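Example 9 (inverse folding). The structure is encoded as follows.
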């Protein structure tokens, strides 16, 4: 409201005090003008007779964290939109609440969060109290006495609508500040639950209801106190149950819909449960429970908490059956038969140590059977699908003896009992894999699985097995992420690198060193957006260094060297078993320079066919080894057990032995100079590993 000054009011009274009729007319006219002159940014006053006003352009820098449809969940960042506007309440510091005036500030620089407004008759020398709120509300009330609702009477937009400003209000306050120094950090009130729903049949979600434990308020009206720069507090309306309508909740079969449900930020204590019920227009429901771990769970303001679920097609019997008398399996190989289902996967694996030609027999194949048979020492596994918990499993055997054999097998994460031809298996933990080492031959016609939807266990954090990694250019290294808690429902992690020109990272966390430099590799959880970093330093190789101690793993790039002769095995040759199969090298203090010549002669050592054995591959792409007891060297473009090598280190010497014990050595005879596998005699070799 633009208020006339005292002097102007006094002048009006003095001029017209002897003309009663005219006085009444002028007073009425003056009241009309005063009513029209309401402060409204971006609107010019149209009354020609109004005195000229002093206009001050006021600028506010409004910082904030992620919000609205511009929210990037991968980075947690967002920007203001050019169409945004703020309600900014301003008063001279120390004046009464009635002096607050609400101005509409328009976004003038979205990238930097700058908002401006032209305001009339401000004293630019005064100090002011400022309260800002997003989105804009057209009222002139005292902001410190006016509450705004969070997550109440909410309407969720369609799947493409994202997070709207009205469902994620922001506010900020600052006291006793000059007009030129208004810099406000906008604060969130709401936290968001992002429901990612995949439908197995056509559905239309009509509402989402949230219910919290007693005294955990998920929807309130919020008051603001300007003391010490602004604090929020709950108002008189507090809710432990909220129902939000969904404007457009249609999801076609096989498609995914996304819905954002806002609540006030809150914390669940250990064991407390937050429940959601999603309802469709035809009365179907999906129940989702979130149980807080022992450490509790904090749903922070401004955070997006992702919940992914599959809305299953409704069937009369919620349990399912595998028919083992028909071709119901999903895959069959020489070592296993697998039955797959969304709820669970069952596999029977052959005991490879057995001499029997087949110690399992599916109910199909060249000789069709009426049942599937599990043989002694084969391994049965049943793995629940994501989001499901197995309550029990019933096996229907062809004889009571077969039932007893299965029940008496060695079970892990389960117990089993037999009654006639029925075997009942009860998991210890229905969300984890259970298995049995089959104790005796048994045959079955049916397997029936009873299940329920598993309670959501939210992610609370993530770690990476290496916080720093130093890696040679061209090499690779595996990073592994560990989700907390271990039984979290959604363990999906994405990997990113801050500098792909230095190091890239695959979807599984495999780091590839591209060029010398430093990059940060980050693992980010799909649930909660928790992150863990690894600083990767890539270095350029400058030399091959003599191996002086036995490593735990011999993998790497090497020169194979006969030191006395100053020669190295030439891995660049197409024919490796040849006289003069070496290059000359210069050794200085246990180092050989890494250059185009030595790099072209190098060998790569990697894990062999079994633990403790190694493959040795030449620069020309051939694996070397020696099977048998006659001197020689075999080379092939593909590897198998005949190319396994044993590498050891003792008394300062490296020994490389082929499959049957012949050792890789150097023949120094004048007419036989070569690297080759020998049974005895010849010269010992050394390994020089590529490094700095």
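The amino acid assigned to each position is listed next.
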């Amino acid at each position: 409201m633009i208020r006339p000054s005292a002097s102007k009011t006094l002048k009006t009274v003095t001029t017209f005090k002897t003309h009663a009729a005219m006085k009444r007319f002028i007073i009425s006219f003056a009241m009309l003008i005063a009513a029209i002159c309401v402060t409204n940014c971006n609107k010019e006053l149209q009354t020609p007779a109004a005195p000229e006003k002093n206009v001050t352009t006021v600028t506010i820098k409004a910082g904030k964290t992620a919000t609205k449809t511009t929210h990037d969940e991968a980075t947690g960042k967002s920007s203001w939109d050019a169409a945004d506007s703020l309600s900014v309440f301003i008063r001279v510091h120390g004046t009464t609440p009635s002096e607050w005036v609400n101005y509409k500030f328009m976004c003038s620089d979205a990238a930097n969060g700058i908002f401006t407004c032209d305001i009339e008759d401000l004293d630019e020398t005064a100090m002011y109290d400022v309260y800002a709120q997003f989105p804009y509300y057209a009222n002139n009330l005292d902001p410190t006495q006016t509450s705004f609702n969070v997550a109440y009477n909410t309407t969720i937009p369609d799947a493409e609508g994202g997070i709207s400003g009205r469902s994620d209000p922001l506010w900020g306050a600052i006291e006793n500040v000059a007009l030129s120094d208004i810099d406000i950090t906008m604060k969130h009130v709401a936290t968001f639950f992002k429901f990612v729903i995949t439908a197995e049949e056509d559905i239309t979600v009509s509402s989402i209801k949230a219910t919290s434990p007693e005294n955990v308020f998920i929807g309130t009206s919020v008051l603001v106190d300007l003391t010490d720069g602004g604090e929020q507090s709950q108002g008189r309306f507090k809710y432990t149950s909220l129902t939000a309508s969904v404007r457009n909740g249609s999801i076609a079969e096989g498609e995914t819909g996304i819905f954002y449900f806002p609540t006030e930020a809150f914390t669940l204590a250990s064991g407390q449960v937050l429940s959601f019920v999603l309802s469709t227009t035809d009365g179907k429901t999906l129940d989702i429970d979130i149980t807080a771990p022992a450490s509790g769970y904090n749903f922070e303001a401004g955070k997006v908490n992702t919940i992914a679920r599959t809305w299953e097609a409704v069937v009369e019997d919620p349990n399912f059956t595998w028919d083992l008398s028909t071709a119901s399996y999903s895959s069959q190989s020489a070592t296993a038969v697998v039955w797959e289902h969304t709820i669970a996967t069952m596999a029977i694996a052959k005991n490879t140590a057995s001499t029997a030609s087949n110690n399992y027999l599916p109910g199909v194949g060249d000789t069709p059977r009426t049942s599937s048979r599990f043989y002694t020492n084969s391994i049965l596994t049943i793995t629940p699908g994501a989001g499901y918990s197995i309550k029990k499993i019933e096996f229907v055997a062809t004889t009571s003896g077969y039932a007893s054999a299965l029940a008496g097998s060695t079970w892990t994460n389960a117990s089993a009992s037999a009654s006639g031809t029925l075997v009942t298996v009860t998991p210890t933990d229905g969300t984890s894999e259970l298995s049995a080492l089959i104790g005796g031959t048994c045959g079955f016609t049916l397997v029936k699985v009873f299940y329920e939807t598993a309670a959501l266990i939210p992610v609370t954090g993530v770690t990476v097995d290496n916080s720093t990694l130093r890696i040679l250019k061209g090499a690779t290294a595996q990073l592994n992420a560990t989700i907390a808690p271990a039984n979290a429902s959604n363990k999906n992690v994405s990997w990113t690198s801050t500098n792909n020109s230095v190091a890239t990272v695959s979807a599984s966390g495999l780091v590839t060193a591209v060029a010398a430099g430093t990059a940060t590799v980050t693992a980010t959880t799909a649930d909660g957006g928790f992150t863990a970093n690894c600083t990767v330093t890539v270095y350029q190789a400058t030399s091959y260094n003599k191996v002086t101690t036995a490593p735990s793993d011999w993998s790497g790039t090497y020169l194979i060297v006969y030191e006395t002769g100053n020669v190295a095995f030439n891995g660049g040759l197409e024919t490796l078993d040849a006289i003069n199969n070496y290059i000359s090298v210069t050794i200085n203090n246990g180092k050989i320079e890494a250059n185009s010549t030595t790099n072209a002669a190098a060998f790569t050592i990697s894990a062999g066919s079994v633990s403790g054995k190694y493959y040795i591959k030449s620069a020309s792409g051939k694996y070397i080894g020696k099977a048998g007891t006659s001197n020689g060297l075999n080379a092939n473009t593909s590897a198998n057990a005949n190319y396994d090598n044993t590498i050891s280190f003792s008394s300062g010497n490296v020994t490389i032995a082929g499959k049957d014990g012949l050792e890789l050595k150097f023949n120094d005879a004048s007419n036989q100079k070569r690297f080759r596998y020998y049974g005895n005699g010849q010269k010992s070799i050394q390994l020089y590993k590529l490094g700095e």
